User: What shape does this take?
Amino acid sequence: MATNAEVSKNEGESAVNLIRRFSKRVQGSGLIQGMRSRRYYSRIKSREVRRKQTLKVIKRREDVQEQIKLGKMEERTTRGPRRR
Assistant: This one.
């Protein structure tokens, strides 16, 4: 996918104004937004993978709670008001 953003210098126009006009043209074409959306794209995980991860988290929480009850691990304390 090739998108060209072309500007030509007008009479009496400075290089700074030319660059500014070019930048506006590129922004207007949506080229940068499209590239950013493709750059940070992550595939949706399958149902089975999500299920396995959830079961793993639940098991880990149960193990931590058991360790806290046995006195082998201290309960984690928060340092301040909790933010959401």
